[in-house]
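Retro notes - structure team

What went well: the batch runner handled both jobs without manual restarts.
What didn't: labels got mixed up in the shared folder, which is why I'm recording both outputs here explicitly, each with its sequence directly above its tokens.

Job 1
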Amino acid sequence: MNSMQSIFLGVLQGVTEWLPISSQGQTVLVMLNFMRIDPSNAISIAIFLHIGTMLAVLIKFRHDFVSMLNRDSKLLKVIIVATLSTAITAVPLLIIVKDLLVTGEIANILIGVMLIITGVMLGVQKRMGNSYRTLDEITTKDMVFAGLAQGFAILPGISRSGTTITVLLMCGIKQELALKLSFLMSVPAVLGAIVLFDVWSVSAVAMSDAIIMVLSSLIMGYLTMSVLLRFAKRVNFAIFCVSLGVLTLLISQLPILLN
């Protein structure tokens, strides 16, 4: 991997992380099909890229994180519940991912299927419409559901933001608050994934390239966060995800068809 590839991956992560499409799915697809990085390293690098966008969230919502230093904070309580619930689904799925992603073809098929699932979930959410519950009205059950759903984002192709926002909206939470909670929930989830995937041991990336990836994803993620959130409310990402998932499945079958 060279510096230009590192910058490209960082920029791709910074842009797609805020949209209800899988940033991990997109970066893994690029690494598998264009950079020829093996699936195991590609997954770890994709997780590592989240460090930059996680830092962007910490900077953007720094006042909210400071408010959570108060142990009586309602926001702190809901984030803790969501994080514990995330571990229930994420840890077992992590074991499955490590066991199954042994070839690029299997990885591509999994990504395609998960992108389609994400699109279907977003389509269901849109049909149900928006609701207007506030932070004080959020229940423990709401955050358990959101946390369990977030755990599935350990699978490449499942959009973490798309999944959590969909579940929160289905629970009747105000759209602006659902977006905010989804971002805040990402920080402990990313930290946990970094530990579980042991991304620091990835041999395919030099330290200089790792720094470039983090900085580019941080800068691009922070600069595009507000803009992309506004666009995300207008664009039909359900159709986009399903179409991209189908295309991914077709591409994964090309080697078979050509033989």
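Job 2
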Amino acid sequence: MNINATLIGQAITFFVFVWFCMKFVWPPIMQALEERKKNIADGLAAAERGRHEHELAEQRAIEILHEAKEEARSIITQAHNRGIELIEESKGSARVEGDRLLVAAHAEIEQEVNRARELLRQQVAQLAIEGASRVIRREIDAKVHSDLLAEVAAKI
């Protein structure tokens, strides 16, 4: 055996092996590595997008919460203002009702005063007739004197 021939045979076998590996073994390994690299890059990008979307969602949640608080403040303010308006309306209604009752009471008092005056006029007229008939001690024409006393009572 010649060492040169063995060396040349080993070199040819090595080159055939390298060619075979580069032709049939290396491309699937490189493809698997590229796919893994792509999957890792996609995963990192998705994680970054998820983190960014999470931050945006947090900001939006804070904005919505702030808007809800503002709306709640607005509703509370409106309710307070409406309550004040209702109180003022009630006060106005109470004043109007009080004035109406006061006018009705004054009218009723006026009617009672008029009735009392009329009753008093009648009693004064009767007393005057009775007193006059006792003083004169004679019969008095009731019709003539009642007209006369009615005229006097009207002046009173």
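One thing worth noting from job 2: The mean pLDDT is 87.
We'll revisit the folder naming next retro.
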